[in-house]
Specification:
By secondary structure, the chain is of the alpha/beta class. The protein folds into 4 domains: 326 residues, Alpha-Beta Barrel (TIM Barrel); 72 residues, no CATH class; 94 residues, Immunoglobulin-like, CATH 2.60.40; 92 residues, Galactose-binding domain-like (Jelly Rolls), CATH 2.60.120. 22% of the residues lie in helices and 28% in strands. Strands 9-7-3-2-1-13 form a 6-stranded parallel sheet. Strands 14-22-23-29-25-26 form a 6-stranded antiparallel sheet. A 5-stranded antiparallel sheet has the order 31-32-37-34-35. The protein is globular. The two termini are 46 Å apart. The mean pLDDT is 96.
Length: 695
């Protein structure tokens, strides 16, 4: 089956493309070595990210810098890897690490503030009842490349005014054009994109101001705005003029910054990648060849809630934007600083799995892990950890992760998503409370942002957009009064659960002529339910993590195929339709003989490598071995490796650790060796993290 073959081993184009922090004493030899190491572990692309800790001897955008960039690009080309160029030195994007402003202070970011004291250099915008509205330089900064240039530090570079066409032009000349001069022969082949990273209009470390730019007062006036009424911005009130301000600001940012970068990339044979400033910035996603977002800083987490607040909308934001624009891919910069308990480097394999599935089931199909560190020497290890690549505990077994990301990326690309409901939304208001019950009831939906409202039509109560029919509309009923606005409880789910499972997420879609259901357990306890799918065809059950397909027996009912579903915490599963002949060729679902865990004794402890090794013996009879596949479930935190009679039985990255032991046990006594590897937080973190069997 071609579908299954591609799922088992998807093409390289679906690789994860991590940030590669270029943060040390870069050498040509080490750049080549690390890239080859990435490829050997199933990573076939990187974002070249100049990062804090870069040697002061390597001047950003200087001759030596570009010689090293060329080395990396040439090495990637030789390895058939892809390169995404990063458009900044650190972040936020748009300032060329302060070079835009350095010789042109007039191009620094600016904003409006409400003040009682007009200072020299202030431009009076309007006099309001509670003070003067003035325009002044924001003083906003960015994170620089060298020590002493971080947030709030004296030498932090000033940010440019990305609403000013002249500033953006200078930014492009300093960065994009310079990269093109140096490695233009690789554009459109090895080099596939430029990554722009959460551009901020005001810059960082700014309070009490709202964005502004030269000439914006006239734009606002011509649109009918009264500047004096913008004083409402400063106490959270809303009026016609504040709404107009936000609308015009969004247009300006799109046209001047994102539009300029998008057109430049397209003209040079690559795509604009990256992500906007906020998690629900859906309207500016249209400028990206690969719309994106960033799941960082543990804004969402397994121990919290994957459905609460603005950040819970980001996966759907990028995926739905891509779908509306007919873009094949959408991306997420994920895992950055997602450490736990305020303990840098504490990010478990189980949490990585949760974040991955959280994104995939919402439609994300390009993973950009944050980050692979060139160096963790000295202070570099404390700069937005953890490393989720070569300095992680999983590196020796990383192909399990790179393959999983590749599978999910292939699976969620070129799909026709089943979406019964259209959710009307506005930029920075993607209605998390409205969509929560849709997720909890497994009801597919599509965000429809404001700019698409004029293209929508209503026929017989259904909303149509781009040839897609939505039977239900959620949001402001006044926008489309003739459309059906039912209660969520009246909508047809993509799969029926008996009993209901509010922690089950479902993506229902067609791919290559097959109906598919991606199922994810987003909770911390197992799911056990009876599942009914609206289909009358044989099903294949596919374990996405282990790459194991099997037939999926189901009861045929008037409502569709009915089958039991058990999904553990951190569990994900794909069900898809197949032909009768394909179903007959599939193996039957495995049956397991659950073994009682033997008593393990500590045999060795290696503090340097954070490992504890245990040994035990296990007795089993020939009759038991003939019954079913023996399954051993073991406790223990972090990563577990098991050998049976000297033969590897597998690696598990999160507890409970389950090891199928088919073909490894012999009748009588068997020797088991279990190695548990602890968190790098024990070496680099603020406090130790327990691991091993002794709890």
């Amino acid at each position: 089956m071609k579908f299954l073959a591609q799922l088992q081993n998807p093409p390289r184009e679906f690789t994860a493309i991590p940030f590669w922090f270029l943060n040390g004493e870069l050498t040509a030899e080490e750049l080549r070595r690390q890239l080859a190491d990435f490829a050997a572990h199933g990573i076939y692309g990187v974002v070249l990210h100049p990062r804090m800790g870069l040697s002061p001897d390597i001047t950003y955008l200087g001759e030596r810098y570009f010689a090293l960039i060329r080395t990396a690009v040439e090495a990637a080309a030789a390895l058939d890897m892809k390169i995404v160029l990063y458009d900044e030195g650190m972040y936020p994007s748009g300032s060329a690490c302060g070079l835009v402003v350095k010789d042109h202070p007039e191009l620094a970011s600016e904003g409006i503030t409400l003040t009682q004291t007009v200072l020299p250099g202030d431009e009076l915008l309007a006099q309001a009842e509670n003070g003067a509205l003035v325009v002044r330089k924001s003083g906003g900064t960015m994170r620089g490349l060298h020590w002493g240039e971080d947030d709030g530090e004296k030498n932090a570079p000033l940010t440019a005014d990305i609403l000013n066409p002249e500033a953006v032009h200078r930014f492009v000349q300093l960065t994009h054009e310079a990269y093109y001069r140096e490695v233009k022969e690789y554009f459109g082949s090895t080099i596939i994109g430029f990554f722009t990273d959460e551009p901020s209009i005001l810059g960082r470390n700014v309070s009490g101001m709202f964005p502004w730019t030269h000439g914006f007062a006239e734009i606002f006036r011509r649109a009918g705005g009264n500047a004096a009424n913008l004083a409402a911005l400063f106490d959270g009130r809303e009026n016609d003029d504040t709404r107009l301000y936000h609308k015009l600001l969004l247009q300006r940012e799109g046209e001047v910054y994102y539009g300029t970068l998008s057109r430049w990339c397209e003209a040079h044979g690559i795509g604009l990648m990256g992500h906007p400033h906020q998690s629900d910035d859906i309207e500016v996603e249209k400028y990206f060849a690969v719309p994106g977002q960033d799941l960082v800083l543990r804004w969402l987490a397994p121990e919290k809630d994957g459905l609460a607040g603005m950040d819970s909308t980001m996966g759907k934001c990028s995926a739905d934007a891509a779908r509306l624009m007919h873009r094949r891919r959408n991306a997420n910069e994920c895992f950055g600083a997602c450490n736990k308990d305020d303990n840098p480097w504490q990010l478990s394999g189980g949490d990585i799995k949760w974040y991955t599935d959280w994104l995939a089931v919402r439609g994300v199909n390009l993973f950009i892990p944050h980050a692979f560190y060139y160096s963790i020497c000295g202070k570099r290890k404390d700069e937005r950890p953890p490393d989720v690549g070569p300095h992680s505990i999983w590196w020796a077994h990383y192909e399990a992760w790179s393959t999983y990301w590749r599978r999910l990326s292939w699976l969620m690309t070129d799909i026709d998503l089943h979406a019964e409901a259209a959710v009307l939304c506005r930029n920075r208001d993607l209605c998390p409370d409205t969509v929560r019950p849709l997720f909890e009831r497994q009801i597919g939906f599509q965000y429809i942002p404001e700019s698409y409202f004029p293209a929508c039509t209503v026929e017989d109560g259904a909303l149509w957009l781009h040839g897609h029919r939505y039977t239900a509309v959620l949001g402001d009923k006044a926008l489309f009064p003739d459309a059906a606005h039912p209660e969520v409880s009246a909508l047809e789910p993509d799969c029926r659960c008996d009993p209901p499972q509010p922690m089950l997420r479902c993506a229902y879609f067609n791919k290559e002529g097959r109906a598919c259901w991606l199922l994810v357990n987003e909770g911390n306890t197992p799911i056990k339910t009876r599942l009914t799918l609206p289909v009358d065809a044989p099903l294949c059950r596919y374990d996405l993590w282990n790459g194991q397909p099997c037939a999926c027996p189901a009861e045929r009912t008037a409502k569709g195929a009915c089958l039991p579903l058990e999904l553990p915490a951190r569990g994900s599963l794909l069900l898809f339709t197949c032909t009768a002949r394909e179903s007959e060729a599939l193996p039957l679902p495995p049956t397991y003989l659950s073994l009682a865990a033997p008593d393990f004794a500590l045999a060795d402890e290696d503090a340097t490598h954070l490992t504890k090794t245990y040994r035990a013996t296990l007795q089993i009879t020939a009759t038991e071995l003939q019954t079913a596949t023996p399954l051993l479930t073991l406790p223990g935190q972090e990563m577990a490796e098991l050998t049976v009679n000297g033969q590897p039985a597998g690696v598990s990255f999160w507890p409970p650790h389950k090891f199928p032991l088919a073909g490894l046990l012999t009748p009588g006594e068997n020797t088991l060796t279990l190695t548990l590897t602890g968190s790098p937080a024990n070496r680099y973190g603020k406090h130790p993290v327990p691991y091993g069997l002794e709890r």
